[in-house]
Amino acid sequence: MVLGSSPSARTQSNLKDYNLKRINMKKIIKKLSNPLINLWKTKKWLVIGIVILLLIAGNNFYKQAKNKTVLSFVHPSIQTITKTLDVSGIIDAKEKANLHFAAGGKLIYLGAKEGSWVKKWQNIATIDQRAAVKTQEKSLNNYAKERLDWDQRQSDIGDGTTVDEELKRTIDKEQYDLNNSVLDVELSAISTTNNTMSAPFEGILVSSPTTVTGIQLSATDSFLLVNPKTLTFKALVDESDIALIAQNQTATLEFDAYPNEKLQSFVNYISFQSVPSSSGTAFIVELPVEASDLNKFRLGMNGDAKIELETKQNVLTIPVVAVKERDGKAYVEIKTGKNTAEEKEISVGLETDDYIEVIGGLTENDEIVVPE
To answer: Which CATH number, 3.30.70.360, 3.40.50.300, 3.30.70.890, 2.40.420.20, labels domain 73-82+313-369?
Structure first.
């Protein structure tokens, strides 16, 4: 029983100490707050005045600290600036063809494999021609037969023979039969020609549906031929910017795969028809890629083009960050003392990402504030 009653006694002792501490804390708080409460009741306006004075003093201190900020000044400079437009695109080729047979057939000859260089008119592939050749022979035989019948009919009629309506109709039918036999010969010749695939231009066979002969090809199986000498960078230019683009504008190309390598190019084509894009309406602009190595600059590679829109030489410029715009006007802070400046309106011209042309309001001798 003694052991069981000990925890209860200890708990009661702890509660008693806790209550004493709370009572003492309340007395201390009351003792400290009473003078403040009495001061507020008796001298309320004095307290308000002191608070106002403290706010004014704090504001003056802030202004003085602000005025003590060291300003950074620069002189306007004479230089050449260029306005550019950055657009994104991919590598493509002007001469690119997906070649396929008009009808399927068994592949019996393969003249090039994927990655091979192909000359113009070189035979790339051939499908089985035996059926087409036999059809052509049959068409020639039918033509020969119809021709003999036609010649016999002309011989039987002879000169001066009166031709009645029934005979005339018979002659016309035989003429149609002869014409059809000629068409059959021509069609069979076309069918024979379509069994052979020739390269319409020189280039690299980028893709092939097979690497071996003896397989059946369908009409949808295609061989992709690309002329690497016609590589081009295709970029989408937004409708709002297309009026800034013109033929022969110079540009710099940079590709994601080679971020440290830049190629010089120019605008050589602007599409006449718009295409849909993620941002709305856009137009295709092409810039030639002066490289013929498909092992490096591959089709579909992503990149950016920096197109030079306008260049001005030997003009007065200042950093763009130094200019403030308000109500359609431009302002800068011009130095008036060792660490003081005042706002001044200026006239500006061409603007780039970093600099802006100053047409009026500043000289090279002036100093302007540049935000840090």
So the answer is: 2.40.420.20
Q: Which residues pair with 73 in a beta bridge?
A: 369
List the chain pLDDT tens, one digit each, 372 residues: 334 444 455 555 655 565 555 666 666 665 656 665 665 566 666 667 777 777 887 777 666 655 556 788 899 999 999 999 999 999 999 999 999 887 778 899 999 999 999 999 999 999 887 666 666 677 777 777 777 777 777 777 766 566 677 777 777 777 777 787 777 777 666 666 678 899 999 999 999 999 999 998 888 899 999 999 999 999 999 999 999 999 999 999 999 999 999 999 999 999 999 998 877 899 999 999 987 778 899 999 999 999 999 999 999 999 999 999 999 899 999 988 888 889 999 999 999 989 999 999 999 999 998 987
Residues 348, 323: Cα–Cα separation, whole Å: 10
CB 349 within 8 A of CB 337: no
Long-range contacts of 289-292 (CB under 8 A, 24+ apart): 289/91, 289/231, 289/232, 289/233, 289/253, 289/263, 289/265, 290/263, 290/264, 290/265, 291/231, 291/263, 292/228, 292/229, 292/231
Domain 86-94+228-311 has CATH 3.30.428.70: no
Contact assessment for residue 45 and residue 333, using Cβ atoms and an 8 Å cutoff: no
